[in-house]
């Protein structure tokens, strides 16, 4: 799972409930499907009390169900325990490097614009894009709102994902997230797999069409990823290998050390470092 992850006035102004996620922590969490329906009802009452409109709640929860695939994925993240060499082999590191070099050439103007604005070179962005979704080839198949709601209900990280659920409701409310959207098992959205709160915080319009679409626009997805890294301390011109200035920004992208090292290594190979 990628715990990662729209600094837009329109979003901030549209959702008075964005700062109120912890209030729903009073809803009773659970570790199986038995109490999920009751939890959803309780959460919706509390969300309404925090200013979430009835229409948003109705749309957002219309198709929500307890997602066993999400729980299975949450409990089975074994690849992060592999050695670096094993992880690279499992994730197809060499294939990502090879294709990443080609993608860098074919999207040179886009990566130049992103680096000029955010200070982040192509390599780590391509490494993330390649490892997360195969350069946009597979975004996931789980119902996003079901995944986030399931993890908000689940006792293991209820507070964290309750906040993600409030962010998802904000995105539904402003039209940025379809209630029918599908993505990765933990509710990640788009070509580089942002959790809902990170879409709210770091999503940007990279292609200049006036909207943020992390699913359909590679420019939006990559610019948002660069904005995320900058928001986690990326310094223009600094190195990003372990021990260098910008490695801590990669640590912000994913908590698993083997994943961080893979981003750094793949990125350096693409950038020719």
TrEMBL record:
Residues 36-239 form the Transglycosylase SLT domain. Keywords: Signal. It comes from the Bacteria. One of its GO terms (biological process) is peptidoglycan catabolic process. Residues 1-26 form the signal peptide. The keyword Signal applies. One of its GO terms (molecular function) is peptidoglycan lytic transglycosylase activity. The keyword Nucleotidyltransferase does not apply. InterPro entries: Lysozyme-like_dom_sf, MltB-like, SLT_2. This is Lytic transglycosylase.
């Amino acid at each position: 799972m990628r715990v990662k992850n729209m600094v837009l006035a329109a979003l901030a102004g549209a959702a008075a409930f964005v700062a109120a996620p912890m209030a729903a922590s009073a809803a009773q969490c659970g570790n199986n499907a038995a109490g999920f329906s009751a939890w959803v009802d309780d959460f919706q009452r509390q969300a309404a009390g925090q200013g979430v409109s009835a229409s948003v709640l109705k749309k957002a929860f219309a198709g929500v169900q307890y997602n066993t695939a999400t729980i299975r994925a949450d409990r089975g993240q074994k690849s992060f325990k592999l050695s670096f060499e094993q992880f690279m082999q499992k994730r197809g590191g060499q294939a990502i490097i090879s294709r990443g070099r080609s993608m860098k050439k074919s999207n040179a103007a886009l990566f130049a614009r992103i680096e000029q604005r955010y200070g982040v070179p192509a390599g780590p962005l391509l490494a993330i894009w390649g490892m997360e979704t195969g350069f946009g080839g597979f975004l996931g198949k789980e119902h996003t709102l079901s995944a986030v709601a399931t993890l908000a209900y689940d006792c293991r990280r209820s507070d964290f994902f309750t906040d993600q659920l409030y962010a998802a409701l904000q995105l539904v409310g402003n039209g940025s997230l379809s209630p029918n959207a599908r993505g990765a098992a933990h509710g990640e959205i788009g070509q580089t797999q942002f959790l809902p709160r990170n879409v709210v915080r770091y999503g940007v319009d990279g292609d200049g069409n006036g909207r943020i679409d992390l699913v359909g626009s590679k420019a939006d997805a990559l610019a948002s990823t660069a904005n995320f890294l900058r928001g986690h301390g990326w310094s223009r011109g600094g190195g990003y290998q372990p021990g260098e200035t910008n490695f801590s920004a990669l640590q912000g992208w994913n908590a698993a050390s083997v994943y961080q090292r893979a981003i750094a290594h793949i990125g350096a190979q693409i950038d020719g470092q």
